[in-house]
Design a protein that fits this description.
The chain is an alpha/beta fold and 352 residues long. The chain has 13 helices and eight strands. The protein folds into two domains: 315 residues, Alpha-Beta Barrel (TIM Barrel), CATH 3.20.20.330; 31 residues, no CATH class. Helix 9 links the parallel strand 5 and strand 6. Helix 7 packs across helix 8 and helix 10 packs parallel to helix 11.
């Protein structure tokens, strides 16, 4: 692993990185990606929008531009009949991320993920998974990535295979490996999450940690355990939904009106407020999380909260809220009494 690598330099001496994930859900929300298959076809069909969202996340404070190749692997493309577009979609996504990173002076990352073919008890499935990792890793290396993220692994075995594949085919590019903490505190094989992260760190991952599935409230207890178990940089990128110890994953959440499973279509009813995201970031900073961000459901106004807590003043901070200027709830000495009094009282039932 090259000591002069950009990722490693940034994380030296307790350095930190703010990282935007969440492209998948955001493009589904905007109407450019289908829920269910969740394949990043938008990379081919609307590359300008992928570039724009990448720029927007940097504007909000991301230190990394992640190539949008999550679920852009062979198995997912086969599912929708577009396996022939595999190389094109990966190279296009990498080129978009590379151009934005170069323009903004941020880090450029490749991305591999859970394969939907790996099975712990099936060697043939593992060979297929490694072959899928290999092709995406080699394209990322050709594009000149600063590091490769392997993410959203519920099984330690698949996460380990991803790490080994990056080490085998990545030509020394560092690996960031994040596990997906499910509704339990264990990997699918039954390994405690913190222990699994420790094993990945000892196997050579530059950063280890958790992403996706759990929201801030239910991921924080686990990331504390990861911090205690690991010596090097750790990562925490939850989904911005109101999970709890009773409902620890976004998939377990219930819509408050219908009582039905909220995932995925009614998850907006479960979104965190910005203050909750700020509180999460403050907790991560206190715990000692060096690689921090948000996953599925992320949006720029959330990421700005994280970035500001971590000491950044991104361009988007120019527009951070200032409620003292609000016509109803602002500084009464500067606003019209008619609005801060009569109109305000008509709108709110209990004025705090």
């Amino acid at each position: 692993m090259a000591e002069n690598n950009a990722l490693l330099r940034r994380l030296q001496n307790k350095g930190t990185l703010v990282v935007a994930e969440g492209y998948l859900f955001e493009f589904e929300r905007r109407g450019y990606l289908k829920a269910g298959a969740f394949v990043p076809e938008v990379v081919l069909e609307h590359p300008d929008l992928v570039k724009s969202l990448s720029e927007e996340f940097v504007h909000a404070g991301s230190d990394v531009v992640l190539a949008f190749t999550y679920y852009g692997h062979r198995e997912k493309l086969r599912t929708i009949g577009r396996e022939g577009d595999l190389e094109k979609i990966n190279r296009q996504a990498l080129e978009i991320a590379k151009s934005v990173a170069k323009e903004t002076g941020t880090l450029f990352a490749g991305n591999i993920c859970n394969t939907a073919v790996y099975q712990a008890d099936n060697e043939e499935s593992q060979r297929k998974a490694e072959a899928m990792f290999k092709e995406q890793i080699e394209w990322a290396v050709e594009a000149g990535v600063d590091f490769i993220l392997g993410e959203t692994f519920a099984e330690l075995g698949e996460a380990t295979l991803a790490l080994e594949s990056i080490q085998k085919y990545g030509q020394g590019v560092p690996a960031v490996i994040t596990l997906m903490p499910t509704a339990t505190e264990f990997t699918i094989e039954g390994v405690p999450i913190a222990e699994a992260c420790r094993r990945l760190e000892e196997a050579g991952a530059a950063v280890v940690g958790l992403n996706c599935c759990r929201g801030p409230a239910s991921i924080l207890p686990l990331i504390k355990e990861v911090r205690a178990a690991c010596k090097g940089p750790i990562a925490c990128l939850p989904v911005p939904y109101r999970t709890s110890l009773e409902f620890p994953s976004m998939q377990s959440l219930k819509d408050p009106f219908s009582g039905r499973q909220a995932f995925p279509l009614d998850l907006p009813s479960q979104l965190c407020g910005r203050s909750e995201i700020r509180n999460f970031a403050e907790a991560c900073k206190e715990i000692g999380v060096e690689y921090v961000g948000l996953c599925c459901g992320n949006a720029s106004h959330y990421l700005r909260e994280v970035a500001e807590v971590y000491g950044r003043t991104p361009p988007a901070s120019k527009y951070s809220p200032d409620m003292s200027q609000h016509i109803l709830f602002g500084d009464k000495s500067k606003m019209r009494d008619y609005y801060t009094g009569k109109v305000r009282q008509a709108i709110v039932t209990q004025d705090s």
